[in-house]
Design goal:
It is a single chain. It contains five helices and twelve strands. By secondary structure, it is α+β, with helices and mostly antiparallel strands. It has a single domain, classed as Beta Barrel (Porin), CATH 2.40.160.210. The protein has a twelve-stranded antiparallel beta sheet with strand order 1-2-4-5-6-3-9-12-11-10-8-7. It is globular, with a radius of gyration of 17 Å.
Length: 264
């Protein structure tokens, strides 16, 4: 099933092929996309796919009066995933399933494959809320236009630092609760963290490639004048690098935090 272009899922080209009580299957096109800060091929949209399949696996277990919010997201990839994806135009496939029993929270497990090869795994933890207030997705014809390139898809532009992206307000990128979609925000964190570790490396070194991204959602992310993704390299060595990243909302408050590890 394709999703409307005026939704975050549709903007990223995600297609959902199955969504039952025991399994969710979806795909995303990633080949050809580059990090707007580095110009290099990227796997960042896999965070968007993970949030979708893992969040849906948790969401379909909700009660009639409940809704779900992502509270944690963890993505693990083989470092060569970016090269495998860039070399072929096939989409990445994600399979997700619920893990253990549901309480106030639920956990979903996901696996990613590309051309039949397993390239990663991930988890999404969701929190169940009640009495949610929903907003409509935008209906202006401009919001149904297809975007190309991550910068336009995400409505981001480089900030003053080498590892900063400014998040412009775009109603298409909001979820049904009217705040920036959790997968969009996680994608932004991966982009700036990747840029941070590679900017801190020695000139001429081969690029460090994403190994893991662990995200905590602290509060809702609202896009506006001060909203941005920014990262700081913690340590960069000959074969690995780590960075911390955060998403800051329109009110200037930290909304998400992430830890990132890359390998050469």
């Amino acid at each position: 099933m394709s999703h409307p272009l005026n939704t975050p899922i549709g903007r990223f080209g995600i297609e959902t092929h199955e969504g039952t009580g025991t399994r969710v299957v979806a795909t995303i096109p990633v080949a050809g996309l580059v990090n707007p800060l580095t110009g290099a091929p990227t796997v960042a949209p896999l965070a968007m796919l993970l949030d979708h399949v893992g969040g849906l696996a948790n969401h379909i277990r909700k009660g009639d009066d409940e809704w779900t919010l992502t509270t944690e997201l963890s993505l693990e990839l083989v470092p060569e995933a970016v090269d495998l994806i860039a070399g072929h135009g096939d989409p990445v496939v994600a399979h997700a399933r619920p893990f253990a029993h549901k309480t106030r929270t639920a956990l979903a497990l996901a696996e990613f494959t590309h051309r039949g090869t397993v390239i990663g795994t991930g988890t999404v933890r969701s929190f169940y809320i009640v009495a949610a207030e929903f907003t409509d997705f935008p209906s202006d014809p401009a919001h149904h236009e297809r975007k190309t390139g991550l910068a336009d898809m995400m409505a981001v532009r480089p900030g003053p630092g080498p590892a900063e992206l400014r998040q412009a307000a775009d109603p298409v990128l909001n979820n049904s609760l009217g705040v920036v979609h959790g997968g969009v925000a996680a994608t932004g964190l991966e982009l700036v963290a990747d840029a941070a570790v590679n900017a801190a490396g020695a000139a001429g070194d081969p690029p460090l490639r994403t190994g893991s991204l662990r995200v905590n959602y602290l509060r809702r992310l609202l896009a506006g004048d001060q909203s941005r993704y920014e990262a700081t390299a913690l340590r960069v060595g000959r074969s690995t690098g780590t960075a911390s990243a955060q998403a800051v909302g329109a009110d200037g408050r930290q909304a998400l935090t992430a830890h990132y590890t890359a390998y050469r």
